[in-house]
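User: I'm writing a short report section on ligand binding and want a predicted complex to refer to. Could you take this sequence and pyridoxal-5'-phosphate and write out the structure as tokens? A short remark afterwards would be nice.
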Amino acid sequence: MASKPAASETGDPLLLTPGPLTTSRTVKDVMVHDWGSRDQKFIDINQAVRDEIVKIAGGTGTHVLVPMQGSGTFAVEAMITSFLPRDGKMLILVNGAYGQRCAKICDYNDRAYVTYETPEDTPPNVDEIGRILDADEGISHVFAVHCETTSGIVNPIKEIASMVKAKGRSLLVDSMSAFGAMPIDAGEVYYDALAASSNKCLEGVPGMGFVVCRESALAGTKGNANALVLDLFDQWKAMEANKQWRFTPPIHVIVSLHQAIQEFLEEGGQPGRGGRYANNCKVLVDGMRAMGFETLLPDHLQAPIIITFHKPSDPNFHFETFYNALAEKGYLIYPGKLTVADSFRIGCIGRLDEGHMEGALGAIRDVLTEMNVTNCAPAQAAE
Ligand SMILES: *Cc1c(COP(=O)(O)O)cnc(C)c1O
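Assistant: Sure. The structure tokens for the complex follow:
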């Protein structure tokens, strides 16, 4: 009965997760070498990656790229603590775990903040942001998450940016799960800094975050940081001085990201990459709805990155069993992280196409039959 499990180009299970994600064989293949961190060959690749990402961001001439070793959160913490002065104050827009994380980072680093929180399925009201900024002169910066990966919601980043600019404050963006797939052109969306990482929509391997910085704003951040390793200003100045990293660079990650960027450009850049993900998302959502599942979000708030589905009310549905059976068939999905509803998530980013989504839907249908689940509607809708 058991057919061969689905697999990536390298025979691995398919990652239907928000990153790390399934990468191409070539992105992994380029790593089977060694490079000297102070050797010209690596220095050139590093510079090319920095220039290409600024170009993808639409910031050539105005913005610079400061890479940061570690996972995405290292880049986010570096961005927050380097851009928000010690006597500054942040307005944090929260509708999920990554907005909450910004507050935690401010707590650890002794930075003042206020939050404007909306439920996980609700974007912030942009006029309300304006009112909060009008009422509190002390707020110097605003932190916004582009796609809140907690739910998969897309926040109105362009409108937020316009409001923050109109009120004369600085915007810091966590675009980790959206950058490369969803439009955020630095010429249209005014921000001082935007953080993302190697292992999300650029489809590289994990190990490096980066911050796209408005150069004029970055130039004014000297002395803000309170951790040497996370000091973006120092990382930038040192890298500008000799094109090298201050401390050991994640060389293989950078070389691999260089390859991933070539593949990103071959796919047509953001419109191409975002188009494939949008199609993946549509195929997945249509197929799941046909089985009776319901999405947390209405389609107009759904980013084509990761989709939250309500847990079925059927008493035979157990997430652990569902997860394990899908894993055996070669599909790794993601647990829910919501506080508003019992749910699970399926990602549609990475080296995956429509065929993989159809395959996942077929596996889900088979697993539901094995589990004897007949009603996929969530409890609240069934009542
Ligand atoms: C993935 C992600 C991050 C970074 O998470 P790490 O686990 O540190 O890589 C930050 N913000 C958002 C919105 C993300 O999706």
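A remark for your report: The pocket of pyridoxal-5'-phosphate is lined by residues 18-19, 71-73, 76, 98, 145, 149, 174, 176-177, 197 (CB under 6 Å). Residues 14-23+269-382 form a domain with the Aspartate Aminotransferase, domain 1 fold (CATH 3.90.1150.10).
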